[in-house]
Structures are given as structure tokens and as C-alpha cells.
């Protein structure tokens, strides 16, 4: 694996124990992601995609193997340690938007920085406004999520994912709850962010999402069974 990789996974394992039956979600999974890549992870339901994304996002921990994020081994950190790194290094875009209904658009976008020590509220609000400008939603600062369409909510969620200037954006089926028009808007926005240098790792079944990636990883039974990066690079050259 490249020493310049942003993400390095070495023989990753993840097992779940339910009713005395062990289910292995990930098995000996190794891969790396370099800065600036746009990676789509595909595969059938139950193949381990969501489990992998949860581990990449430090929402869960592996039961074996090694995970290095931005040069730091994060394989076995405590919950608090993971939360600090997650808040600083990772941006999330979820299928269900995950906006807090009681908070305004501005408050939702500000949320990741409210836990950042030493940052003035004025500066946080200015950055939130800048991120909402980027996704063309700053005119809805004072609105609540219930007052927005699904596509608008997802754009707000993308603004929230950007506010902490993450090293990687993790997207879990970001177009899954959107109609085709709003899905296209969100995908254009993600493509723009990638062109500006963002690293994106996306789990998706959407063929339109897959079309704009720079690399596709296919999973089956908790393992990587295909990695199309080299072939795609040759086609685009």
C-alpha cells in the first residue's frame, strides 16, 4: 500500500455475535484510498458495505486487522478518542439526511463545530454560511428541515459534512431517498467537490453515482472481489 494513502486497511475483520451465532461481516479486507479519489463501493445487500463504512467513519471498530486514517492507527481507540477524530477528520452524508428537526438549517450545519474548542460562535456561523453558499442553500438559513424538500435537505447535509474541512467525505446511499431530479443535483454537487479536491468514499446502488467515480470497489461476502481503479484510469487516459 502507498505510504501516501489517506486510508489504509490491512486484513480487516469484523464479526457480530447474535444468539451465540457468530456472523463475519468483513474478512481479511485490505485496501487503500489515496487523497483526491472518488471511490464507489458496490455489492449485494449483506456483503459488508455498510459495516465497512461504519468502521471507516469510526462509528464502529474492527474485531481484527488494522485501520490507518491520515497516518494514524485508529483500529482500537476508545469511543471518546474516535469521536474526537471523527469530528475533526470525517464528513458524513447519509441516505436519510440525519438532520435534527428541532434545529434550523444554520444550526444543523454549525453542529459539528459546536464541539470545537477555541472557535468563536461568529466564526462558526460565518463558516456555515460559506458552506451553505457552496450548496446554494444559504437563502434557507432560518428554515427547519420539515420546510425543505428531500433534495434540499441532502444539500444541507452535504454543507454540514464540509464545515469541519474533513479529510474524507463518507456517503451512504446519498441519492437513495431522492427523485431523479434531486439525485442529479446532489451528484453534480459531489462531483464538483471531488473536482475541487475532496476525497469521497460512497456506498451506492445508484448507477448514476457509479458513473462519476474515479474508482469502483465491489464487495462480496465481506471481501473485496473487484477493484476497477486501474482499468478506469486507463480508459480515462
Could you give the order of the helices and strands? EEEHEEHEHHHEHEHEEH
Strand content: 25-35%
Runs in which pLDDT lies below 50 for 5 or more consecutive residues are: 230-237
Query: In what order do the strands lie side by side in the largest sheet?
Result: 6-7-8-3-9-10
| Largest sheet data | 6 strands, mixed
Instruction: Please state the structural category.
Output: alpha/beta
Overall body shape:
globular
Q: Tally the beta strands.
A: 10
Q: Radius of gyration from the CA trace?
A: 18 Å
Query: How many angstroms does the end-to-end distance come to?
Result: 23 Å
What average pLDDT do the residues reach? 90
Number of helices: 8
Helix content: 25-40%
At a glance:
This protein is 34% helix and 27% strand. The protein has eight helices and ten strands. It has a six-stranded mixed β-sheet with strand order 6-7-8-3-9-10. Strands 2-1-4-5 form a four-stranded antiparallel β-sheet, with helices on one face.
What distinguishing features does this structure have?
single chain; six-stranded mixed beta sheet; 8 helices; 34% helix; alpha/beta; 237 residues; 10 strands
List the helices and strands and how they pair.
Elements: E1 7-18, E2 21-33, E3 38-42, H1 49-56, E4 64-69, E5 72-73, H2 79-89, E6 90-94, H3 105-110, H4 121-134, H5 150-162, E7 168-172, H6 180-195, E8 200-203, H7 207-211, E9 215-220, E10 223-227, H8 229-236
Parallel strand pairs: 3-8, 3-9, 6-7, 7-8
Antiparallel strand pairs: 1-2, 1-4, 4-5, 9-10
Helix pairs in contact: 4-5, 5-6
